[in-house]
């Protein structure tokens, strides 16, 4: 009893320290970004001084603050652009103040549409992306794959609640970092590579996914069946079964998934869990065949294509987040 009380006390102290550290970092970042915004405003308002004005300001700041970084000519020009970008939109000013400076520069440079930029900003805040992860998500067109893509599922017909959340979870296509696959890989090799890169896969699947197991065994009438990958989705509060198909979609894939979902609902899920969801990932598909198939499946199933990085250009591959950055991101979410 004493040990438990001690552990609770020390755990509470540690949590308080962690929360305070995060609050200090968040507040410091907000003040720094607002400082850069205000400096950008002063630079813009005095731009009539000529072409060398910013160069001279940078030199003066370096002399006055020799140990202070962040006030190079290039960064001062970013500050001026930053101010001009958001000076007429108070909503954006409040939003950008929550993001690190490097994230803001990346978003200004790479996402010109401000509504799409706002979408990426909110995703950064929701999922805690590093700058490298942000660059990767932009370069692999996450907005188009997740927000704009026509997604093929029957969630509105089969889910009483959270159908929109389930639909928004889907991407078209999914993009996986599995470049070591052989040219004529089989489904088992695909699954093994995905397990080797599980943290990368969780990053691509999105926030809320928790890995339960692979080749998850379900037994019916003394016969064993195996689900390729099984996850639990914290936000949807349900199991998500993922089947991998190194082939074009066939209607029988959905029937098999419907069977798996029925067993999960009847024998695995808790009474408080929502109905299980199935995702079938295929190399390619006929959207019309998928839509006709899912129309008459009474379990929630979504079908998407997947791509692997050796099918993408080398520029995108070079900008992948490092293993360390992904580990940090997953640890934060845990």
Descriptive report:
With 334 residues, the protein is an alpha/beta fold. It folds into 2 domains: 97 residues, no CATH class; 166 residues, Trna Endonuclease, Chain: A, domain 1. It is 57% helix and 16% strand. It has 16 helices and 7 strands. Strands 1, 2, 3, 4, 5, 6 and 7 form a 7-stranded mixed β-sheet that branches. Helix 5 packs parallel to helix 7, helix 11 crosses helix 12 and helix 12 crosses helix 16. It starts with a helix and ends with a helix. The C terminus is likely disordered.
Our measurement of the CA-to-CA distance between the termini, rounded to an integer number of angstroms, reads 28 Å
Strand content: 15-25%
Q: What number of domains?
A: 2
Give the helix/strand class.
alpha/beta
CATH class of the largest domain: Alpha Beta
Short synopsis of the structure:
This protein is an alpha/beta fold. The chain has helices at residues 2-45, 53-64, 73-86, 90-96, 101-110, 114-127, 131-139, 142-148, 155-158, 163-169, 187-196, 198-205, 251-268, 287-295, 314-318, 323-333; strands at residues 152-153, 174-176, 209-220, 223-233, 238-248, 277-284, 301-308.
Write the layout of secondary structure elements.
Elements: H1 2-45, H2 53-64, H3 73-86, H4 90-96, H5 101-110, H6 114-127, H7 131-139, H8 142-148, E1 152-153, H9 155-158, H10 163-169, E2 174-176, H11 187-196, H12 198-205, E3 209-220, E4 223-233, E5 238-248, H13 251-268, E6 277-284, H14 287-295, E7 301-308, H15 314-318, H16 323-333
Parallel strand pairs: 2-7, 5-6, 6-7
Antiparallel strand pairs: 1-7, 3-4, 4-5
Helix pairs in contact: 1-3, 5-7, 11-12, 12-16
């Amino acid at each position: 009893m004493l040990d438990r009380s001690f552990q609770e006390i020390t755990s509470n102290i540690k949590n308080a320290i962690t929360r305070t550290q995060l609050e200090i970092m968040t507040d410091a970042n907000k003040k720094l970004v607002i400082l850069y915004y205000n400096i950008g405003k002063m630079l813009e308002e005095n731009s009539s001084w000529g072409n060398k004005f910013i160069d001279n300001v940078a030199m003066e700041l370096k002399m006055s603050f020799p140990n202070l970084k962040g006030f190079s000519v290039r960064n001062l020009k970013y500050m001026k652009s930053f101010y001009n970008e958001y000076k007429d939109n108070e909503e954006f000013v409040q939003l950008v103040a929550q993001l690190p400076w490097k994230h803001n520069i990346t978003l200004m440079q790479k996402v010109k549409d401000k509504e799409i930029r706002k979408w990426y900003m909110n995703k950064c805040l929701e999922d805690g992306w590093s700058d490298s992860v942000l660059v990767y998500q932009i370069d692999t067109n996450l907005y188009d794959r997740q927000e704009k893509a026509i997604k093929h599922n029957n969630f509105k017909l089969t889910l009483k609640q959270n159908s929109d959340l389930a639909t928004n979870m889907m991407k078209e296509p999914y993009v996986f970092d599995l470049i070591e696959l052989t040219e004529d890989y089989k489904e088992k090799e695909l699954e093994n590579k995905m397990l080797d890169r599980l943290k990368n896969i969780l990053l691509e699947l999105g926030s809320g996914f928790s890995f339960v197991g692979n080749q998850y065994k379900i037994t019916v009438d003394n016969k064993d069946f195996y689900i390729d990958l099984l996850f639990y989705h914290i936000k949807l509060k349900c199991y998500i079964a993922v089947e991998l198909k190194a082939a074009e979609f066939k209607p029988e894939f959905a029937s098999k998934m419907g069977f798996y979902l029925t067993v999960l609902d009847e024998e695995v899920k808790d009474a408080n869990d929502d109905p299980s969801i199935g995702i079938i990932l295929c190399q390619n598909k006929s959207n019309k065949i998928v839509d006709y198939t899912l129309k008459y499946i009474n379990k929630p199933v979504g079908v998407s294509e997947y791509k692997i990085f050796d099918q993408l250009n080398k520029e995108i591959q070079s900008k992948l987040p490092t293993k360390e950055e992904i580990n940090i991101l997953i640890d934060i979410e845990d």
